[in-house]
Design brief:
about 900 residues, alpha+beta, 3 domains, four-stranded antiparallel β-sheet, 18 strands
Length: about 900
């Protein structure tokens, strides 16, 4: 008789739906020989017991024959569009969950969906039920019309643009034509079930792509009711997942990513994507964007388009930044400032004032020889050029992205797609929580409504939470500053030995040690705060009960971006604009909390410390992010599969394989965008101090694209397809950061870099025409009389020096009238800095506005193609309707003519009778 568990499962399935049984009989008739078919006809007339016995045998045979990679029902014909899974719960609410599932699946069947249940005894872990869902043709055509899905009506006669003059040089990076363009281009129109003859329907089973099918099924699942509880109607798969009624809901991958499709599967797009996109050996290849869109949907597709375009634009910025660094390396030996600092006769004779009270000793200027040379790599004449260039680059990037986005909207049939279509689709959670209803002015229908007074408390809580966590970030930054101030004295006590006062080169200064350890500590604090804030912000946003998914994402985006902006950039802003600016001078230093003396910059400036901070945070974030994205799903999937393989003799089916994969989630793409935007901030906001930032971002993005592709195709369940025509609110954030970056880079060049003081010295104070920068170091250091040190600040060990030097522009102690006051050079330098900021900002903003005006948002050829497609679509629709009208009129004319002939014959008959 066979496996009794399988027989029991089939018997339960037969009781569940008589329509499924009938369908299985029909499929069996088609696959059997004529003898078996005749036998089945006889069996239909036999008693029900013998009929069920035959059916069980037949389905058992099909079960054994089913491949583990099958994406079909047991009949091998109906495609699986979605899968639900659940585990028997032995807790007290197990009956309630079972009742919810029963009601939910019953309502799914009422919508026209077809379900097939796999018993837990046939699963590998022996405890999970799988509910496979198939959307038949009538359901697909109905909801395709509801969702406004565009489908092909005629193959396009507009050739693809291939006018790139570099297409022959770019041959190695191109993918095969069949991968780049898996389907021909079509003229499309919104699907209408009453106009099915208009559309190019060759095969109903393959007419709707799998991404459209799973999108339709998810739309039904998210609005299907499962009962009434506490007087409220409950519905939506998301609520059932939250309550653990179902453990998961997901569409299936096409097949295995390591091998092509086998019959009866027609195509395995997952395998094609893995071979041509997800492999790291293809890092230099272009992305198969159309195939990504077809498989994962437009929303995920447009993210990879944006990431790829951003990476391409980084090539230019990285090349210029690398050139600036090479210039710094080549001009290092010719740099007069570092030469004087390293010279034993100049820098070696300059005794510098202690960098902390009592514990720190005096030190010679040439002990900072190495840091002064390193500082020149990033602080030279090319710094100004690169800052201006990046201001123009970011404008070109955003303007060209608008053009790329417009071209994408045309190619992916998103021209007429409006976000309002998404806004009309309410979140099931919002509908469930609302007690009030009001008329929608757009649809003129009654819909759930949440009064403002119900949301205000949550808005206040949300604002207070964000403010508290941003204050916590600032407090953490202050704590790191306190750490730096505390450990600086410790480093100085054992690192500033007699070597710093002798003519010995010191390669690791207390400033550098403090900067490195402080930056590493700050990075660890950033990661910890991010981990906790992500959980809290998601919970707060959920409690606000946003109306639509778009509102939910916008609210979460604002919270997360504000927090991460402060979290990642606050320490960089401190080093760039505050450190060393309010130090005071020897004998009258400023103190933090009246305890710790404010940090001073290196004699070469704070730019090298800002570069160190950026390098550690940016590089650490990127390395940690890529390792987390690659290792996290790999480890969890391995562990989940290891736990699931308890019944290894059972069929490890396609739905079980996908069930053991990690979930991408609705916010998976959100965090990818957030990561890219934060990186964009490092590339633009502080790039004047770190010209290698674009190169690091470029290398990271090349890896990031392949890591994201690899995890989506191999380690994650297939996400539900969703539409989008832009990157949404992230575009506004990028524009805002582009504007801020002009100001930050101007201030970095003016106040953090040493460019402006050197230029003022060159034009106003240098007396050496042959070497105009000679003597700059001595000019930039003021003199302090050691006898003027207060007792509590003077070094504990007495020295024979009478004066020491410090970085500032102040009158010497000999000038009794202006002793230690700022001299005229200080005001000249300050005026030059302010002038530079104003001039640079106006030049960059003027160029930005000119470029924005000159570069159209929509390319001319795209405008022409859009007009051509709209014209052809209207013509095709007109011809179709005219043809139908003529056919109807022709039938009516024929009927009318027959009636006239009959009336005439009757009249003639009556006349002849008379």
């Amino acid at each position: 008789m066979g496996d009794p568990d399988l027989l029991e499962m089939v018997e339960q399935e037969g009781k569940r739906s008589s329509r499924d049984i009938t369908y299985s009989i029909q499929m069996s008739e088609q696959s059997m020989s004529s003898r078996e078919s005749s036998f089945l006809i006889k069996e239909e007339r036999m008693p029900a017991k013998r009929f069920n016995l035959f059916l069980r045998r037949r389905l058992m045979f099909q079960k054994r024959e089913q491949s583990k990679d099958s994406v079909f029902f047991r009949d091998g014909i109906r495609q699986i569009d979605f899968v639900l899974s659940y585990v028997d719960d032995i807790k007290k609410d197990s009956d309630l969950k079972a009742e919810r599932r029963k009601e939910f699946e019953l309502n799914l069947r009422k919508t026209g969906l077809e379900l097939e249940v796999e018993d837990k005894r046939d699963s590998e872990d022996g405890r999970t039920y799988f509910v496979k869902i198939h959307a038949p043709w009538e359901v697909l055509v109905t909801y395709a019309e509801v969702l406004g899905i565009k489908m092909p009506i005629k193959e396009s006669d507009i050739p693809r643009p291939e006018n790139n003059p570099l297409r022959y040089m770019l041959g190695p990076v191109k993918l095969p034509q069949e991968v780049r363009f898996p389907r021909p281009e079509y003229f499309t129109a919104q699907f209408s079930r009453h106009r099915q003859e208009l559309f190019l329907i060759e095969d109903e089973a393959t007419f709707f792509p799998s991404s459209s099918r799973n999108r339709i099924v998810y739309y039904i699942l998210s609005r299907c009711p499962f009962g009434i509880e506490d007087g409220k109607k409950r519905f939506g798969i998301e609520r059932l997942l939250t309550s653990n009624t179902y453990s998961s809901a997901y569409p299936l991958h096409d097949g295995q990513y390591w091998k092509p499709a086998e019959p009866p599967n027609i195509v395995n797009e997952r395998y094609i994507l893995y071979q041509n996109w997800a492999r790291f050996s293809y890092f230099y290849k272009e992305q198969p964007l159309d195939l990504i869109k077809n498989y994962f949907g437009e929303k995920i597709g447009i993210y990879f388009v944006f990431l790829g375009f951003y990476t391409e634009m980084l090539l230019i910025a990285a090349a210029v930044g690398l050139a600036c660094l090479i210039y710094g390396i080549l001009s290092m030996d010719a740099n007069e400032s570092s030469t004087e600092i390293c010279d034993p006769e100049i820098g070696g004779q300059m005794i510098m004032c202690p960098l902390c009270d009592q514990v720190c000793d005096y030190w010679r200027l040439n002990s900072t020889c190495l840091t002064s040379k390193l500082s020149h790599l990033f602080d030279n004449e090319s710094t100004v050029f690169f800052a201006i260039f990046m201001g123009i680059w970011v404008t070109l990037f955003l303007e060209f992205w608008k053009q790329r986005q417009a071209r994408l909207e045309y190619e992916w049939d998103l021209v007429d797609f409006e976000e309002e279509q998404q806004q009309l689709q309410l979140r099931p959670e919002f509908e469930a929580m609302c007690k009030h209803r009001k008329m929608n002015p757009v649809t003129k229908e009654m819909e759930p409504y949440m009064p403002l007074w119900n949301r205000i408390p949550w808005y206040f809580l949300s604002g207070a939470t964000v403010t508290f966590w941003m204050a916590l970030v600032v407090s953490s930054m202050v704590a790191v500053i306190v750490y730096r101030l505390s450990v600086f004295a410790t480093f100085a006590s054992f690192m500033e030995s007699e070597a710093s006062l002798q003519h010995v080169k010191v390669y690791f200064t207390p400033q550098l040690a403090t900067s490195l350890s402080g930056s590493c500590l700050n990075f660890m604090v950033i990661l910890m705060l991010n981990f906790f804030y992500e959980k809290i912000s998601a919970w707060i946003t959920k409690m606000e009960i946003p109306r639509t998914y778009q509102e939910y994402e916008s609210s979460l985006t604002l919270k997360m971006f504000l927090f991460q902006f402060v979290n990642y950039y606050s320490s960089c802003f401190y080093v760039a604009f505050f450190k060393g600016k309010f130090v005071g001078y020897p004998g009258k230093y400023t103190y933090l909390f009246n305890v710790w003396r404010s940090e001073e910059c290196d004699p070469g400036g704070c730019l090298i410390e800002l570069t160190t901070q950026l390098t550690i945070i940016m590089t650490g974030k990127q390395i940690f992010g890529n390792i987390k994205e690659a290792i996290y799903p790999l480890v969890f999937n391995w562990w989940r599969r290891r736990k699931a393989r308890t019944n290894s003799e059972k069929l490890y089916s396609r739905w079980e394989q996908d069930h053991d994969l990690e979930t991408f989630g609705q916010l998976g793409l959100f965090y990818e965008y957030l990561e890219t935007v934060i990186q964009f901030g490092f590339v633009t906001l502080f790039v004047a101090s770190f010209p290698l930032a674009p190169l690091l971002a470029l290398l990271n993005n090349i890896i990031e694209i392949r890591v994201d592709a690899w995890k989506l195709t191999t380690q994650y369940r297939r996400p539900v397809a969703a539409k989008a025509h832009s990157i949404g609110v992230w575009q506004d954030i990028l524009y805002g950061m582009a504007v801020v970056s002009v100001a930050t880079n101007a201030f970095i060049v003016a106040f953090t870099s040493d460019i402006i003081p050197r230029l003022v010295y060159y034009y106003a104070y240098s007396t050496n025409t042959t070497h105009p920068f000679k003597g700059y170091v001595n000019n930039s250091l003021s003199v302090f009389l050691i006898a003027d040190f207060p007792n509590h600040t003077a070094p504990s060990e007495k020295r024979d020096f009478t004066t020491c030097r410090y970085r500032d522009y102040r009158h010497p102690p000999e000038d009794d009238e202006h002793k230690y006051l700022h001299n005229m050079q200080f005001w000249h330098v300050l005026a030059a800095k302010m002038t530079f900021i104003i001039v640079m900002e106006h030049i960059v903003f003027l160029v930005k506005f000119l470029l924005a005006w000159m570069i159209p948002d929509v390319p001319k050829d795209v405008e022409e193609r859009i007009k051509r497609e709209k014209l052809m679509t209207v013509k095709i629709l007109h011809d179709f309707e005219l043809k139908k009208l003529k056919e109807n009129l022709g039938i009516n004319s024929e009927v009318f003519s027959k009636q006239v002939l009959m009336e005439e014959s009757k009249a003639q008959l009556a006349k002849s009778t008379i």
